[in-house]
Amino acid sequence: MATVETYIEGTPSEVYSVLANGWYYSGWVVGTSHMRAVEEAWPAAGSRLFHASGVWPAVLADETSIDEVLPNERLVMTARGRPFGEARIEIDLAVEGDGTRVTLTETPIQGPASWMHNRLADLILRRRNVESLARLASMSERRTAPHSTDPERTP
Questions:
Q1: CATH of the domain at 17
Q2: The whole model's pTM is what?
Q3: DSSP H/E element including 100
């Protein structure tokens, strides 16, 4: 189980609006390359979105489904990511000051990632999810300039 958290300068409803728009999924989830489809009911329990991972022509089609939803508070998903298997993703939103404390927990539940689950795997998942939350923050805050804590990136 890999847990990361961050503070986002926006209300839980602003953060949730990004999570609730399935078309934004590939914009904040590290490892997805593009969206293929989003069921109309997203993010209702049982609904799915369909994404792809990889770089053309080596692209794999996968999907993510909603297990539990409490609008503006909690989202629990099962994400399929071939060839690694499936993971349970829990995202909790809590008011903190003028913003939102976001906690993301990822647990491999099926396939090779669950068989090889160890401290090193959790370290990799945590690093990936730190970046995912940084992307979620940028989208939720609708930034017009880089955040002071963004790493320097060279083109």
A1: 3.30.530.20
A2: 0.89
A3: strand 99-110
